[in-house]
Design goal:
This protein is mainly beta. The chain contains 4 helices and 43 strands. Strand 2 (44-47) and strand 3 form a beta hairpin.
Length: 747
């Protein structure tokens, strides 16, 4: 009897013990938000009882599968003050909402963990510590990216990365809030990417990646991608006036229109005027208008609408031949044909819904529409083809761009591991009208139409990926399927028939990251990617409209000290045979297979919180695989770059930064008989804060007044007084020493 009683008591104790244990360990859900109730992505939650880290998703939400009453939680994120909380019983009844206050970006706050792209966090610190004042400058903040402008400031920049001369975006994908910037089958060049419609003060962050490894980034993301993320709310209203050398003047106004717990809205506008440093005035004018409205529902889901309008016009002096400068025919800042230039407009509307379906399924729907109008006048060969009238050309188009992307993701806890699964699908539709290449007598008189037609290009895509985070390891595998249809209606033929083609490409991707501690990380990535070729390739009977690339990255990141970070990556990229539509001539050129490999190195240090320094070096080797040795150089491919800077921050009084960049000499043609000269440049910016609301800024470009060539090409041309053609370097001179000042008032 006593034995049975003892067993009964033990059973009751065990039963209530299990009940107590089950009730003590429950699922705790919550979200991290900033002081304006905007979700904080990639924030962390540290649970002291198990020394476990949990991280917020793109809605700011987190889930703790085995939370216990009395356990202390610590919260934090890069750029925010830390916070802590001891779990109480009532915390399980409603979702926790933890507000974090903004703080200065500090290198010691960068967290190394297996499921994080730490280099993106480092870029946030770079931008915060050494600010820049244009979207082009911010693009150069991405380690390894160099740019060159060669048409009066209005044309899209030429981009260089990882041994690529990317032209205006052929092998790098650029987006703003997920909306594509690259233009497929563009009148001037494939992947043409004009970032001038981005007001730099509206940029909140950059997301970037090198190589073809991102599952979400499709067409053009072979050498890498950059996504500009604009602000959801303004910290304060802002008025800014700038004035500088060469007739440069800029005005900026940014205003909060709504700022309630549920609704946020702001408006920003920018006007820029510049005569330029060339002998012939460039008359560069730009107007930007943008706005954003955000509504947050009671459950934390959010709906955002955005709009942008951009208008720009300019004149240009173009690329000039070395012989014309050497002979004294023109000066270094002169022009052979001063009638070059162009104009462009762009209107964009976007909508984005981010939230949850049920408890654990995240939903992200983004749609956009853009209208684009473009006209460019150029003369690259002067009098080579037409000794009487010259070789002036016009490239123009009108375009409607539509797209939608739907993404679903789910995160499951599997003991000490967690598994995140994602699926995404969508489309992009480009309807291009009057895509034109014409020989011109002047800007209005057409001598000959070389190409004229309508283009319809549709990209449907689907991607799937899973990420398993297990203690110190992260494994990610994914697959992307793209189907692109190409349609061209040639307006220069007597027939009304359309040329059509469709192709499908499958891009598998995989990566492994290992973080043995919070100071180091190792990773291996292997992926396929692609870029599409111009639709007009169907005119020439090409069946190779999608060019595949395969890339591998092996790297490490190390924090020997809390405020010191070193990173290194070895990489290689193979590109399949591809065709390039030369928009300046209306012909297709086969480029053949290529191989590139190299090493990226980086260093960042922050001392006493107000002194910050960084440097990035890249070594690249780029060769054509179908050309004989010695004739296999890839023109203009960078082989060594170096960029860095030093910044001194101070909330009161004087602060500033010094930035430098170096690009080594490189081959301008296939046998390296012509050399694109390198350069070393230094820029300086100083800020003096008179009060909480008033700041004076001084920016010095090309501090040491170096003569340098910004854009360089090996071109065959003939001048009006010449009887034969000459192939040599044609260049656009870079800016001499230039000074500008800016006065910013915030309220």
């Amino acid at each position: 009897m006593k034995k049975n009683t003892l067993r009964f008591c033990l059973g009751i104790w065990a039963f209530f013990g299990m009940v107590f244990s089950a009730s003590a360990q429950q699922i705790l859900r919550g979200a991290l938000v900033d002081e304006a109730s905007i979700p904080i992505e990639n924030g962390y939650v540290f649970q002291e009882s198990c020394s476990c880290y949990y991280y917020t998703d793109n809605t700011g939400r987190f889930t703790l599968e085995s939370a216990e009453i009395g356990t202390v939680l610590r919260f934090g994120a890069l750029g925010y003050e830390k916070s802590s909380l001891r779990i109480k019983k009532q915390d399980f009844e409603n979702n926790l909402v933890i507000k974090l206050s903004e703080s200065a970006y500090r290198l010691k706050e960068v967290v190394v963990r297996p499921d994080t792209e730490v280099l993106t966090q480092l870029l946030k610190v770079d931008v915060a510590q050494i600010p820049v004042k244009s979207s082009q400058e911010i693009l150069q903040k991405v380690p390894g990216i160099f740019i060159a402008q060669h048409a009066g400031g209005g044309k899209a920049e030429q981009i260089f990365l990882r041994g690529f001369d990317l032209d205006h975006g052929t092998d790098i994908r650029l987006t703003v809030d997920g909306i594509p910037v690259n233009m497929v089958s563009h009148a001037h060049g494939q992947g043409y990417s004009d970032l001038h419609h981005v007001i730099p003060e509206t940029i909140a962050a950059l997301d970037f990646g090198k190589g073809p490894h991102s599952i979400e980034q499709g067409n053009f993301a072979t050498a890498g991608y950059v996504d500009f993320k604009t602000k959801s709310i303004l910290e304060e209203n802002q008025l800014r006036l700038e004035s500088g050398s060469f007739g440069r003047n800029r005005a900026l106004a940014m205003f909060n229109l709504l700022n309630t717990p549920k609704q946020k809205a702001y408006f920003a506008t920018e006007a820029l005027f510049s005569e330029g440093y060339f002998d012939a005035p460039q008359d560069f004018e730009r107007l930007n208008v943008s706005g954003k409205y955000r509504y947050q529902f009671d459950n934390g889901n959010a709906l955002t609408f955005s709009g942008q309008y951009f208008d720009s016009s300019w004149d240009a002096s173009g690329q000039i031949p070395e012989r014309a400068v050497a002979s004294g025919q023109i000066g270094r800042f002169g022009a052979i044909d001063a009638t070059e230039g162009g104009n462009t407009t762009r209107t964009t509307l976007g909508a984005n819904y981010v939230g949850t379906v049920g408890q654990d399924l995240n939903l992200d729907i983004a749609s956009y529409w853009s209208y684009y109008d473009f006209q460019l006048f150029s003369n690259f060969t002067f009098f080579l083809n037409d000794p009487e009238n010259g070789d002036r050309i016009r490239q123009s188009e009108r375009r409607n761009l539509f797209g939608t992307t739907v993404k679903l993701s789910n995160k499951m806890e599997l003991g000490e591991a967690n598994l995140t699964s994602r699926i995404g699908l969508g489309f992009r539709l480009d309807e291009v009208r009057d895509n034109d290449l014409s020989r011109m007598l002047d800007r209005t008189t057409v001598l000959e139409r070389i190409q004229l037609g309508d283009i319809t290009e549709n990209n449907n895509f689907l991607f799937l990926d899973t990420k398993l985070n297990l203690d110190k390891w992260s494994f990610q595998t994914g697959m992307r399927l793209d189907r692109i249809s190409f349609e061209y209606q040639n307006a220069l033929t007597n027939t009304t028939s359309k040329l059509e083609e469709s192709q499908t490409i499958l891009s598998p991707k995989a990566s492994v990251q290992y973080s043995p501690n919070e100071r180091s990380q190792y990773f291996v990535k292997a992926s396929y990617g692609f870029h599409s070729n111009d639709t007009r390739s169907v005119v020439f009977g090409s069946s190779n409209l999608l060019a595949k690339a395969f890339g591998v990255d092996v790297g490490t990141l190390w924090k020997p000290l809390p405020s010191l970070v070193v990173n290194a990556t070895a990489w290689t990229l193979f590109s399949d045979d591809e065709l390039v539509y030369v928009g300046d001539e209306g012909v297709v050129e086969p480029n053949g297979k290529s191989r590139r490999y190299g090493v990226d190195l980086g260093f960042r240090g922050q001392f006493k919180n107000n002194l910050y320094c960084f440097t990035d070096a890249t070594f690249s080797h780029a060769r054509s695989l179908e050309s004989p040795s010695g004739e296999d150089y890839i023109p203009l491919a960078p082989n060594f770059t170096l960029a860095g800077g030093v910044g001194i921050s101070n909330e009161k009084g004087l602060s500033g930064g010094l930035r430098y960049r170096y690009l080594r000499d490189r081959a301008a043609n296939e046998d390296f008989s012509l050399v694109a000269s390198g350069y070393f440049l230094t820029d300086l910016n100083l800020n003096y804060r008179f009060s909480k609301h008033l700041v004076l800024e001084v920016i010095v470009e090309n501090l040491f007044d170096v003569d340098w060539n910004e854009a360089q090409f090996a071109t065959t041309s003939r001048l009006q007084n010449e009887t034969s053609a000459t192939e040599e370097i044609h260049f656009t001179p870079g800016s001499p020493l230039a000074l500008r000042t800016g006065l910013t008032y915030t309220f």
